Amino acid sequence: MTSTSESHDVVIVGGGTAGITVAARLRRAGRALRVAVIEPSARHFYQPLWTLVGGGVVGRESTVRPEASVIPRGVEWIRDFVETFQPDEHTVVLRSGRRLSYGQLVVAAGIQMDWGKVRGLPGALGHDGVCSNYSYDAVEATWRELRAFQGGTALFTMPNTPVRCGGAPQKILYLAEDYLRRHGLRGKAKVIFATAGKSIFGVPYYRKALEKIVADRGIEMLLRHNLVEVRGAEREAVFEHLDTHEQRVVPYDLLHVTPPMSAPDFLKSSPLADADGWVDTDPHTLQHKRWPDIFALGDVANLPTSKTGAAIRKQAPVLVKNLLAHRRGAPPAARYNGYTSCPIITGYGRLMLAEFDYDDQPQETFPFDQRKERFSMWLLKKYLLPVLYWHGMLKGRA
Predict the structure, then answer these.
(1) Which of 167, 141, 165 minimizes the C-alpha distance to 55?
(2) Which CATH number fits domain 7-111+263-338+390-395: 3.50.50.60, 3.40.50.920, 3.30.70.120, 3.10.450.50?
(3) Which residues contact 302 (CB under 8 A, 6 or more apart)?
(4) Is 131 among the residues known to form the active site?
(5) Which end of the chain has fewer surrounding CB within 10 Å, N or C?
(6) 381 with 345: CB under 8 angstroms?
(7) What are phi and psi of 212, to 5 degrees?
(8) SS3 173
(9) Are strands 99-107 and 91-94 parallel, antiparallel or unpaired?
(10) What residues contact residue 371 under an 8 Å CB cut-off, 6+ apart?
């Protein structure tokens, strides 16, 4: 899978959604560029479907393919880990000791799940009523725990960190509430959404519609509550109130955890990172703010927008255009406006499609009010978006 060449025109760090999309677009640009993707994993996941796996709608196996199958033809796959960046030398050093030089560097390393930052969570995950849709290994436990639930407290959390797809923590909340209602268990259940945020959703245009859904379905909201400990044997979740710093213990029968997340550790300590560990990226050109031959996109960039695959779909063409312009010695002319999308599942067969930009202004695709729950948008999520992903984005076509 590797070449003896240590010099490349473009080196891409990360073989997930962002990295493969950029690699495919570079190949389709029709230029004879030597492109390499650094990615240690042998598997490639379509994570947006994990909510539906946790809700029992699709099988887990439909969300994974071999990484080798998504590497674009003509792109070198280097299966290794990044150790350090040496941007002044245009070099990436790998864990194996290999040194790769580049003309341009694209950082698309995704986001890191920090399970261990919640005391007791790693040991409880997958049993003791604890589940999470944010792990391929744990996602099937969500459906198992939901089917085993016969009453009590169903508790869903959102951490005090950036997360991949900010709407996902409440998608499984709505699916679970709908499941309980359909199976005659809603009257025996208290359903709680404990979020570190100040509201249910950050974009005012969609917030009111979601607040109405929460109120109509009798879901209890705990705002500014950040999960700090899981006591699996006792089935207790411990939260810190972010304003008062007081701790609160909430007993549960089912606990779905969205773990804290951060930039990958190898990036936090690198010269590419900002104070919070994310790649310090111009929000419009996607160039690094200090080194113009370095670009970043997706979850790892410090762009002030939600970290979603839909955002990457709009970022990738901007990045590729500006990277190619930089190679020609031209200024970056393409601009990214912060577009992102969050298909918020609100129940089985119902979905609200939120689309917005850096200014939290709606950027809706369809000629109707997307704040309304629709079956058509559910079909889009379940059937069309996976096809767009595997055969559009990852092929550089969409």
Answers:
(1) 141
(2) 3.50.50.60
(3) 274, 276, 278, 279, 280, 281
(4) no
(5) N
(6) yes
(7) -65, -40
(8) helix
(9) antiparallel
(10) 205, 206, 209, 352, 354
Q: Quote the pTM value.
A: 0.96
Q: Which of 41, 42, 46, 40 is nearest to 21 (CA)?
A: 46
The answer to whether domain 7-111+263-338+390-395 and domain 114-261 are alike in fold is yes
DSSP lists the bridge partners of residue 1 as none
Beta strands (DSSP E) in 40-90 are 43-45, 64-66, 76-78, 82-86
**pLDDT confidence of 3, banded at 50, 70, 90?**
very low
* Residue of 189, 342, 345, 352 with catalytic role: 342
Q: At how many degrees (to 10) do helices 309-328 and 17-28 cross? A: 40
The residues spanned by each domain of the chain are 7-111+263-338+390-395, 114-261
Cβ burial of 174 (10 Å; 0-12, 13-18, 19+) is buried
What residue has token string 């059937």? Answer: 383
Quote the CA–CA distance of 389 and 70 in Å, as a whole number: 11
Tell me the two tokens of residue 212: 């109405």
Distinct helix (H) and strand (E) counts, the chain: 11, 21
Distance, CA of 79 to CA of 41 (rounded, Å): 7
Percentage of the chain lying above the pLDDT 70 cut: 99
Bridge partners (DSSP) of residue 84 are 93
Name which CATH class applies to 114-261: alpha beta
Alpha-carbon gap, residue 69 to 290, rounded angstroms: 35
C-alpha closest to that of 111 among 309, 393, 355: 309
Q: Where are the alpha helices (DSSP H) in 104-138?
A: 121-124
Q: Residue written as tokens 């005391």?
A: 119
Q: Which of 75, 131, 165, 354 is catalytic?
A: 165
Mind spelling out the 3-state secondary structure of 343-386?
A: EEEEECCEEEEEEECCCCCECCCCCCCCCCCEHHHHHHHHHHHH
pLDDT tens digits for 120-175? 999 999 999 999 999 999 999 999 999 999 999 999 999 999 999 989 999 999 99
Instruction: Name the token pair of 222.
Output: 């705990």
Q: Is 165 annotated in the active site?
A: yes
Q: 68 is written with which tokens? A: 């080798």
- 99 contacts 91 by C-beta, under 8 angstroms: yes
Q: Is 72 left (phi over 0), alpha (psi -120 to 50) or beta?
A: beta
The amino acid that residue 328 corresponds to is R
